[in-house]
Every structure is written in C-alpha cells, then in structure tokens.
Design brief:
mainly alpha
Length: 63
C-alpha cells in the first residue's frame, strides 16, 4: 500500500504547488521572448565581429 500511496501523494503535492506559481501573462511572455532574442542576436554579432577581427590580425601576424 505504501508503494502506491507515495507517488499519489507526491502528485497531489505537485498540483498544490503549481497552483501557487505566479504565471506570466501573454504580454509579459512576448516581451521577455523579444528581449531574449534581441540580446542573443546582439551577442552573436559581437562575437562574430571579435572573431573576424582577431582572425584577420592573427592571419596577418603569421603570414
């Protein structure tokens, strides 16, 4: 009986805890997604530029 009771009790507790979660609104989710995509694009561009410049400098150095 204990083997069945523990998982059932756990799932009940999970349901209670998920009820306490503060879920984001659709607008907050869209805004956060935009921020993450923009920050990722900016970091990608920054790393690309640094890599391009350093590759050029090292190419000239070892030529």
């Amino acid at each position: 009986m204990n083997l069945i009771h523990k998982p059932v009790n756990f799932l009940k507790e999970v349901k209670v805890e998920l009820g306490k979660v503060s879920w984001s609104t659709r607008e907050e989710l869209i805004a956060s997604t935009f921020v993450v995509i923009t920050a990722t694009a900016m970091m990608t561009l920054f790393i690309f530029v640094i890599d391009y410049v350093l590759s050029g400098l090292l190419g000239m150095l070892f030529k």
